[in-house]
Amino acid sequence: SNKSLADQAEYFLFKFQADSGIERHEVIEVLTEFSSFDNGEKGYLEKDEAMRMLESKNETRTFYELEEMFVEVDVTNDGKIDFLEWACAVFHKTWEDLHREIEVEVERTQAISDAERALAETEEGKGNYERARAKSRFDKEEIERLERERLEEEAKLTGAKAAAAFFQNQIRASEKEATTTMSNADQIRHDYAKRKEAKELAEKEAKAAKEKAEAEAEAEGKAEAEKERQLLEQEVTYEAQKKAEEERVEAEKKAAEDERKAKRAEFLKKRASMFENKD
């Protein structure tokens, strides 16, 4: 996930707190435990970090069982676990319920507006108001605390990391300024559009990576075929040269044998001539 842990916790509470009776302090406890294994405050756990967290629960005995639990929690199959995946597992919620379409979010926003109007009328309306508000935002003080901690950690950075953190803060400030005047419904649509854009970007990157891998595989296949062709060509050339050398040697042997026979025949002829002259 590209969202911070606080953003993920806020969204989880927005989806489930009022309807499911999940208490804020329960989510904070799970968040605190999760973040203790999140080295670098990425907002998710790499596989080795997630395996250590799962092992710390003392609910598994073997590495195979840890692997099974990891696969079960990693519903997006991206080889890592973000807080939303972990919260769904802990509180027994489905990934589908967490990511219903934006129309459902707008309906929740409308419920908040209705509860706000009812607040001035009855105590029951006040209760509805509090529950509806809990759906749409994480505890403000907790968010501010997490933000302070993030800024304190970034203040310790130097060099390129510090520069990157500075520009990220500028982007966050711009986004915050752009969204402060939005209504709740507009804010949800804005967040949904960003998630959709991020998803489309990830799909494009995955497609490009796949096409690159296929092109590299094709190029590798062609290179291997060319190598095979060259080796076969070298083998054919070698065999031809070998045959030509054998024929040359054979021809030289035959020529030498023919020369030897010719010399012997000449010798015999001369010797015969000598005996004839004596007679």
What does the model show?
There is one protein chain. The chain is mainly alpha-helical and 279 residues long. Helix content is 81%, strand content 2%. A two-stranded antiparallel ribbon has the order 1-2. Helix 1 packs antiparallel against helix 2. 13% of the residues are buried.
Task: Map the helices and strands.
Elements: H1 5-20, H2 24-35, E1 44-46, H3 47-56, H4 63-73, E2 80-82, H5 83-90, H6 95-98, H7 102-119, H8 123-136, H9 140-155, H10 159-179, H11 184-278
Antiparallel strand pairs: 1-2
* Structural class estimated from helices and strands: mainly alpha
What is the β-strand count? 2
If you compute it from the alpha carbons, what radius of gyration comes out, rounded to the nearest whole angstrom? Answer: 41 Å
Strand composition percent:
under 5%
Task: Summarize the amount of helix as a percent range.
Answer: over 70%
Count of alpha/pi helices: 11
Cα end-to-end separation: 121 Å
Shape: rod-shaped
Low-confidence stretches: none
- The overall pLDDT average reads 79
Largest sheet: 2 strands, antiparallel
Q: Report strand order across the widest sheet.
A: 1-2
Labels describing this entry:
279 residues, mainly alpha, two-stranded antiparallel sheet, 2% strand
Short description:
Helix content is 81%, strand content 2%.
